Fold these 4 entries.
Entry 1:
Amino acid sequence: MIAPRPIPGTRWRWTLLSPALACVPAQALAHASRTPTPDDIWSVWTLSPLPAVALLVVSWLYARGIGVIWRAGGRGRGIHRWQAGCFAAGMLALAIAILSPLDTLGDALLAAHMTQHMLFLVVAPPLLVLGAPLAPLLLALPRGWRVRLVRGWRRSGPVQPIWHALNHPALAWGIAALVLWGWHVPWAYEAAIRYPFVHDIEHAMFLGSSLLFWWTVIQPVGRRRKQTYGTSLVLLFTTALQGSALGVLMTFSSILWYPVYDGRTAPWHVTAIQDQHIAGAVMWVPGGIVYLLGILLVLGTWLGQDERQSAHSLAATGQQKGVEQWVGS
């Protein structure tokens, strides 16, 4: 197994991490000895069979489920076309993050790795959630499988309470915050750069925690009470502040956070500290824009619901006055 280069002040952390890494074959852990350069970047596609097959299967199941829904109710009914488009865009974002040269480029440039993180954190998850995937994915399965799955869920015992607890806004927010800050601690981040096994765990945690967060924020919109819209706005605003704060710290820091990049950025004509500043800007600006769009979406839905309720109340009041006038005459 390739021994990691110790980082000043973090030797004890590598000592804690090494027993877990020792349980995994060295071939699965060791990164390639040479990082990509501008001359060979388009030849380093990460065409791993498992994630590629997983993306294809999920996309096929969603498309099949959409077909079932639209054949029953008409095209665009049940699941709107824009929702199907959002899901497709989310799957494309995952494909770019996992399979494209961006994955390997993250070994050479922190900015590329941060771009990959943004795809996992603020691009793919909200798009997938807006696609309302549960119904299409469930209807794509054979009827017998669906029945057994629903029955199993109803008889799942402690699984349902755990799922409902994870959907609590405070817990979903806390998990997302812990994952975001935890993986950007230098020793954890460098472990992910050095070992593909840890790298995969990092990305799985980014995607899973972000899907949970955006599900809690977006999916129930339109079916919640007014105070829950306010909760969603608070979640989005405070999460945006966290991401912006981390990005700002990285952008304006004069200290190299991740020494593993020292010497790797030269072929790209930037220094490691310049690369770090660019990476911070990537987290700060595009991430902030996505959260702002989420805030506007929730706020617009909230105001639209108020307008519909006001119009319904006015119509009901007018109808009642008409009845009273008719009875009085």
Entry 2:
Amino acid sequence: MNADTVYYISQLVNGLCQGAVFALLAVGYSTINGVVGMVSFSYGDVMMVSAYAAFYVYTGITANFIVSALAAVAAGFIIGFLVYKICYERFLNAPRFIIMVCTLGFSTLLSNLAQLIFGRQAKPFLNVVPGNTFTFGPVSIRTTQILIMGTAVIFAILLTLIVKKTKLGVSLRAVSQNKEAAYLMGINVKQTIMLGSCIGYAVSGACGILLAVYYQSVNTTMGSSVTLKAFTSSVLGGLTDVRLSALGGICIGVIENLGIAVSSSSFRDIFTFAFLIIVLLIRPRGFGKNTGGGMGL
């Protein structure tokens, strides 16, 4: 096998690793879209603050990945509760653009506070996992990549079990399909929306530490591009279909890395949005037929 083939296979592995994080981002984003019925512009900045929570726990309290990951998830959950209280709770029956503007304002607030508190310089997040490399034929996979893909799969399975096997999951699916009917069936719609929002943002917290480990740093601008990638993946899945949104995230990760393999890393976003436009031109509803009538689980 020649060097070019090995290089493209390595880029494919990198794409699958990055795509696993994008897929998990899309899962959380689509969960929020499903239960709230509105896109969130604060998703990436919540992820960024959660990544900083993991960083400070890891560097200041205990150098343990699991504890740091739990700190990131907890931070995402707590900030998700604040987003619900500030941006969602009072405006659930208001015109839809009000919630969008509120989440945009909350995003700006988080971003600026983070720059004041954490500083503008990126902080190194090194030696979180051993730097071992495993070779499978011509392909080499780093421990970091295995950890990221494994963690993403575990969180996706946990979220699926919550949605499919618990009473909360039944409520989430009911509210995502029809809020009025769910209310008539005795479901506490506001509480369910709050928990769905918290869970979605908790997933963003998990993605925060995964991206920090992948890029070996945290910075206050890491959330801006992530919001666009999560939104793009969600659009490919029809905004609320969790499984197809996850597929969209994997596709974006693979296409980005294969694209920059034949061009330049500065064209990364061009490949992402070109892929989105092409898919929507062919299939205006994305990968599936669901246009917002439920979470698709």
Entry 3:
Amino acid sequence: MKIEDYRPRIADKLLAEHLEAFGAVCIDGPMWCGKTWTALRRAASACLIADSSDNFATRNRVAMDINYAFIGPEPRLIDEWQIFPAIWDATRSQVDKRHGHGRFILTGSATPSQKGIYHSGAGRIASFRMRPMSLWESGRSEGKVSLEAVCKGENIGIVDTRRPDLAEAIELVLRGGWPETTDSPFSQAVKVPSDYAKRLIDRKIPDIDGVQHNRHKMELLLRSLARNESTTVSISSIRRDISAVGDVDIDDKTLSAYLNSLERLFVTENIRPFSPSMRSGTRIKQAEKRRFCDPSIAAALLKATPARLERDLNTLGFLFESLVLRDLLCYSEAFGASLYHYQDYSDRELDAVIEMPDGEWVAVEIKLGVNQEESAAKHLLDVRRHIAAKGGHPPQALAIVVGLSSAAYRRPDGVYVLPVTTLKP
């Protein structure tokens, strides 16, 4: 991709805001999600540590003298800083010496071990996560409906939109949100998540922590996570899944270490549980909803194809939910909201919860087909009544995010129906 082909990202605004308030900003996120391109748009100079075009001359110079990374006009980009973890403390020191805001931009596709990092960076280095492209960023959502407006309970009227068919919905899942393939033919675009998964199995995991993972066990773990995409599957269930499929013995401690490695690579981004009120009488389950940072990774690990997903709409439903969660994470962060899921011990669940900065929240159900609208709306209304009856703080708004629909609107009962291809922050 050429810099002139850059598509605006939600992270552009977040980066600008953070640079105005802090001496340095760190953009975290999975590899290939576009961190470097976004940072280069704001940087006056760059230290590209992982760049091989100069035979790793930059990397070698930083290895000899860490201060080399900070020489150049500001804001100075230091790309893939985690290769030299000492850069974190050095950045904090440079910010203290130079004073002022917007001095440095760090980008990293892994969280290094704490060895060599002695300071949190609080007050000097702000961090935020960048993700693969949402549908709005890639141009596949018309952006006619603001998620922030919905979260505030505003009237959106009736918004007509082009209705995707099943084949297009499947393509959105399999293609993923990878910037370099935004305009690529589908046949080429699907090769990227496939190669991504292969790199995780073959060599990327051992690179971040110096621990040599068992390749076969890691592959079985990744495939188990793919089969359980967007569910609250437990570690013990994943271990049984691995043993049943591969006849491999793996203990919970080892499995937890492997899962931690995936989180440190930002490959997985689990959705935390939500409680509507500390005083509520409802008992809330604390399991996280497990998911990859992009549904295309799970689809690649499952060796999913359009034909296979057309025959297996149940699996497609979980992958579509992951796609929507990716977009909701991107959009909600843009206006300071947080994303959770809800599950209590009475088997009441919500696919997503968006909590606003003022504590108000929105209950969300995710459905591929609009034919599931009535049951989803009934479920949302039932959950709201139950939470209120138990003394919890009920949701300010209720919404169904759907895949195959031709209009966004608010029902007479107050429930929003929102095609994912109409949403923007």
Entry 4:
Amino acid sequence: MSCFLRGLFYFTGMENQVKSPAHQESLIPRQGGYRHLKTFQIAEIIYDVTVRFCDTYISKRSRTHDQMVQAARSGKQNIAEGSAVSGTSKKMEMKLTNVARASLAELKGDYEDFLRQKSLALWENEEPLRRELVALKPENADQVAQWVLQVASRYGRYGLNGKTIQSIPSMVLERKAFPEISANAMHVLIGVTMALLDRQIKAQARRFEEDGGFTERLYRARQNFRKSLRSNE
């Protein structure tokens, strides 16, 4: 595992996201609350930025445009839907969470394809800009866009053959620097979300092993009810 991924949870403050709640028997446990999940929060940013990215750099007539937007939306929506059904189906919760991860993996590949086909650089795992973005903890698409602008202002240090920003015509800068930084930023945030979803799925599996599914809880509830009736006779 790279230093970037080892430090990922420290930088994002997400290390406590998927800890199991205290055990409490309930027929239909608390469900929903997905807006408090870091995975959903970052997936929502990824969706919003992807819509802007595709509208700016990919023709709306291209099938890739729709596929990337739908993959980003699927990542966000399936996290929400998985959380919403968690009370009655842990199996479906895990399935939908895994669908969200698969959609984001597809989107990550699309950004890699974009960079390769445009002859733009894909940042290495140890690229300092990766850590910089993660440490920023962006809360919305506007903050990501502002960061891209800030990085572009000093981008000669990192790309475009080492040229300073002043030596690059604005048209060339727009064609190269901004899409390269934007695509890499999404690549980073998608990687963060996928790593967190891996932990989330493992936590969901542990809770299923500990508490069982809805059918098992229903059986235990009926057994407890019958015991209470007998004890009152």
